[in-house]
């Protein structure tokens, strides 16, 4: 399993966000902790009734066009992909698994127990957690990863990392996530992803479709997912959402809501899983 790191001093770093119905492109400011400079945002059509790849195909094509028009030959590109396109599981710690290949095989088995033979067409990535703690595993369609790689290379750029939206949220806000026990809710249009953490590490990760107003949906879905995960139904809730300040007065029974700054930037090498060169 390949290792990777990100430099925050590169002058040629671009960040793209690939989500259902939209693609955005920004340039990272060339200094430590640099903010993002928006370059372009486009809406794309998606055929929800077609093949699974139809959900992201138009977005990847649009990304390739945006990179070509940006005339950033040689730029290094980080692509953040929506949780609509990612599956997550927590992989239990096993002291008998030492080699990366064995840990990755164990992660694939964890996905297979949930999704069956579908995992045969997925690329899987596993992060590193301290001994004794469960680890995050992420998976995307192998075809999607290949399409992203091709789009970036054909535009004359290089692919630095493909990062799941949940990992991106954790990376950007990890210095704020100080409570020993908490829930992080990552909000996207049409989707909510919950990750629960306790004193012994990550406890559960759950994703749900979410069609409707967030203040109405969040309390109910959070209660359901906390119960299904066997974690306490209350505590600190970190809310990572577009336009988070609009939810400053949101009440979630039993939870203290802490809003996360949407524009926050990671200021050190990422510590959660990226999805590139995963099984080399």
Give a description of the structure.
The protein is of the alpha/beta class. It folds into 3 domains: 13-82 and 142-170, ATPase, nucleotide binding domain (Nucleotidyltransferase, domain 5, 2-Layer Sandwich), CATH 3.30.420; 87-136; 177-259, Nucleotidyltransferase, domain 5 (2-Layer Sandwich). Helices cover 25% and strands 32% of the residues. It contains 5 helices and 13 strands. The chain has helices at 54-70, 100-115, 142-154, 165-173, 214-229; strands at residues 13-19, 22-28, 36-43, 76-81, 87-91, 122-126, 135-141, 158-164, 182-188, 190-198, 201-210, 235-240, 255-259. A 5-stranded mixed β-sheet has the order 3-2-1-4-8. The chain has a 5-stranded mixed β-sheet with strand order 11-10-9-12-13, sandwiched between helices. Helix 1 packs parallel to helix 3. The longest helix has 17 residues, at 54-70. It is globular and about 50 Å long.
CATH topology of the largest domain: Nucleotidyltransferase, domain 5
Low-confidence runs: 1-11, 266-271
Percentage of residues assigned to helices: 25-40%
Overall structural domain count: 3
How many whole angstroms does the radius of gyration measure? Answer: 18 Å
Total strands: the figure is 13
Mean pLDDT: 83
Structural shape: globular
Q: Biggest sheet, open or closed, and with what strands and sense?
A: 5 strands, mixed
> Which superfamily, in CATH terms, is the homologous superfamily of the largest domain?
ATPase, nucleotide binding domain
Distance between the termini: 6 Å
User: Pairing-aware structural class of the strands and helices?
Assistant: alpha/beta
